[in-house]
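S2.1 Query sequence (Cardiolipin synthase B)
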Amino acid sequence: MRPVDFTAHNQITLLFRGAEFFPALIAAIDAAEFDIYLETYIFALDPVGNAVKDALLRAAARGVAVHVISDWLGTGHAQSVILQREFRAGGVQHRIFNAWFRRGVARTHRKLCVMDRKLAFLGGLNINDDMISDDGFDDPLPAPRWDFAVRIAGPLVFTIHEEARAQWRLLEGLHLRYRWETFRERRSTARHVLDGTAFAGLVVRDNLRNRRTIQKALLKALGGARKSVLLANPYFAPGRKVRDGLASAAARGVDVTLLIGVGQFRIQDAVAHSFYPKLLKSGVKVLEYRRTQLHGKVAVVDDDWATVGSSNWDGLSLFVNQEANVVVKDRKFAEALRAQIENAVADSVIIRPEDFASMPWYERAWHRAAYLFYKNVLRIITLGRYTE
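Output structure tokens follow.
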């Protein structure tokens, strides 16, 4: 596993929800001149997805080399077939990740796009309408999905480009040696430098050299926290090390606030609830966001460490799926993200220890059973690594 490769002089812009993300993404696609790599878990054929698809087709029509990877499970078989047909007809190169689980259970859960090695987008937003649920039922949401992406210019873009290109080449069936070759290129090739202030690094999780990179980056930030930890995630079911890291930070006096999205999957909520008593006892503040679907995977530690990306704090993201986060060490960026999380915290429900003290025994039993089921399934999938 390689360490996080930070670069200086980046310009990182926080994008909140689809209202900020999709116009910026489409404008960048329309401005691309040479090549585009886009990777997503869900590529929906709704009005938003069609707008992005049309922009990619326009780029291909003017001679840009456009490469799109969509996940078969996240996008769905029927929509994947339609996308494949329409993209091919329009000159867009499209590959479907792990159709029919031919390469095991791992999914590409990454959401990234890079243009001309000069501009990149990365975060938690899929290519879908953030007023429609993404759980397969297409139910309307009461408010736009709570999520984030970042727009990146500067040296880090080259790293993201090489990661996207490596994924594309690996889906051709090339030998795994290709990742090592691109890693050496990444270390030796000059990068475009801007007058940016952000110190940032790409953190990916795969089943090759980066099995624990994202988790270790999170644990290092928690271990070094001095004042505060503020994080939000929709699916909270990490292994023991992350739970202990949160509890340890709170125990040494760090103000730890955990904002969790609920209401989408009943069993996921029950698994998260099974952790609440110990977290609350250790001093972690736990809140639930119920206004709409919370999909953002973000955190701010102290005054100048922040992360935005695709990785949930659960067994699938930390031990199975392919994920991509950006870690930013910049006070101004951290302040902007902190303000957004604090706004959501103010609109959330505080979970108190007494809420569980008076809980009926059968609800506690359901939480425990859900966790045991989840743990055993993940231990099988991860060959026993989930509890790490």
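The CA atoms of residues 172 and 240 lie 37 Å apart. The chain is about 40% helix and 25% strand.
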